[in-house]
Amino acid sequence: MVSGTYLPGNSFVHKADPRMKFSLLILWVIALILPVSIAALAAYYLALVLLIWAGLSLGQVFQPLKTIWPLLLMIALLTPPFHQSGRELYQVGGFIRITEGGLQEAIILIVRFSGITSAFFLFFRTTTIDDFILTLRWFGLPYSGALVVTIAFRYIPSLLQLYRNIEDAHALRRPVPEGRRKFHPIKKFSHIFPTLVSVMIHSIKGIPTLSMALESRGFGRHNPRTSYRSLLPLKEIVHQAVLFIIVLLFLVLLLFM
Amino acid sequence: MKTLIKIHNLTFSYPRYSDSQVPEPPLFDNLHYSIHQGELHTIIGAPESGKTTLSRILTGLVPRYTGGSIEGQLTIFKKNVRELRPQDMIETVGTIFQNPDDQILTTRVDSEIAYPLESLGYAPSAIAERVERELARFGLEEKAGRNPATLSGGEKKRLLCAVLAAISPAVWVLDETLDEMDPQWRQTLLEYLTQQNSTVLLFTSKMPASATALQQQHRAILSQGRLHSQAEAIDRIAEQDGLRLLPAAPAQAAETPDKAGPVLLKAEALSFHYPGLTDFSLEIDHLTLRAGETLTLSGPNGCGKTTLAKLLCGLYTPQQGSISLPNSTDGSAALELLRSSAAYLFQNPDYQIFLPSIEEELAYGLKEKGLNRERVTTLVQNAIQSFRLPPAETSPTLLSYGTRKRLQAATYWLLQRPICIFDETDSGISPKDFAALIAAFKSPQRALLIISHDAELAQHYSDRILRMEAGRLIPEAASW
Description:
Chain A is mostly helical. Chain A contains ten helices and two strands. Chain A folds into two domains: 12-135, no CATH class; 142-173 and 187-216, no CATH class. By secondary structure, chain B is an alpha/beta fold. In chain B, a hairpin with a 2-residue loop joins strand 4 and strand 5. The relative contact order of chain B is 0.13. The chains are: A mainly alpha, B alpha/beta. At the A-B interface, helix 8 and helix 9 of A face helix 2, helix 3, helix 9, strand 15 and helix 10 of B.
């Protein structure tokens, strides 16, 4: 059952104001992109690891890395041969040189990608979609834009669930191979197409139905729209704002390391 | 009494697909009907008779989004529906779609109820009051913060009822809404609508049972483009269109599990929960399915019936416990073996239909089994005849919902699986079609598991009825 990325919890990360979390997310991503030292990058990433551990669990620290490991592997394999600066550390077959500079570049890229993925992971794991939408609207996104984001978040997990349901439904129609099962990549790949066709048919059929659903809920009326849920007034989250400034100082300090 | 809805000379047809060999979709031909304020009208009709189309014409959604030609008059409170936009009518007429997933827009239960109130511009305090009231009325208080995607089919329908109750429109248009809801909530909904003096149009493909309140209300039957409201015509057409349960099959109903055949599936000490969901867990001590028996699984919405079915056919892996089949060597059947032993008819037939023609759809599993071309062709033709399907080359995407359900069943019928699970298969098809499906699958070598909220249907077809509550099985419940 796919219900989105949010994992219910009661940690201080869950309770933090979504505007603060969103601002920090943006700052963290910027910090991870900036050309800073490996030590600073490692500190940014380590801080994220500690937050994921404290807000979710130690096991969740590795969750975002599971989704991007092929990318990290490619960076680890392909970056060093293309960066030949610094002292030579190793040579493969007489022509592929691994240098200090190449290794350092690979580590920077790996920490950078792991950090950015973990930052988004932590934000969406501890923030409900509703709070995220309210945050976007607080920052000035018009309602129609927020609706597009809502619909996307409503339908992306649904499409994933639909894909799994259809995959299951198709799997139930296939016989079990006799004897020990062998992995056939081509056959496995060919089974993806019927599943994708079904998902596409469902999605296309859903477009007019979604429009009907929106209009049957009053979308597109001429009167001003109100909002049931709202974020806390800023004066009620002063303590969080103070914490925000401390974290900001930490980020800036690391920039000068 | 004041006439609220007036349908006069209403004629409608969908756009033509000239190269299609599929019979033309339902056409309304000079419909006449009047509904007074506070009345509850049940519109009965076989699948494909045009119930959903009529319900959407009443709410202004058709032909706005589908195209087609419409003539005649349709007025609600003397206003011409054809001249109004659906979003401007939501306080007058509200609708619940047949498939709740088509209508849910948000990622929180309480936000879903609030959505139309926000559209209407209600103050946040007024919205909060109504949201709280309707959550309580429809038993969803504890699920207020949940993502609606994680609710069961029946719970989703209750959520949509709560959405409409929050707006409290003068007219409720309900498309097969009572299907998938358990009897207690059906009763709650009907009592609420009566108290509110709401005008209700309930579209259904089943004749209301004689004991229910619906039998006492206004009824009409939609058949071959016409609406008939005389009692004699309703009874005759219901019989002719197969909208009543057929007489019970003799002997089967009285058979006890001990008299049935050998055990085909045994589940022991099953334990399962969804990651991230703390308010539901499934614990099954013991369950057997025997050859020749028909077991019905009943229970309130969200009690875990579908979850159990998916465990039994190997789509989910239990965290603890075992499911064994006669040919499983280690006592616990591997998932693949379970999957190849069970036919699971999903609530939505479209999950299992993906090829460009009926012939290819039916032949898919047979070809995967390695049967030769002649044998496949013979079996496919046999299935087309047995399940009253259109010509082999017809595209399944152009078929009606009921026909797609028959096609879905036919694909499994050809695979000859020993365990067949019908998950709310009775929803959206006529009792006659459902009876035909059960008859096709019933065999001394096969066990059938029916998941249904229909007590009459369960009593009718089952050798055993098991009730589930909060993820647990209550043994051998004879009553509902």
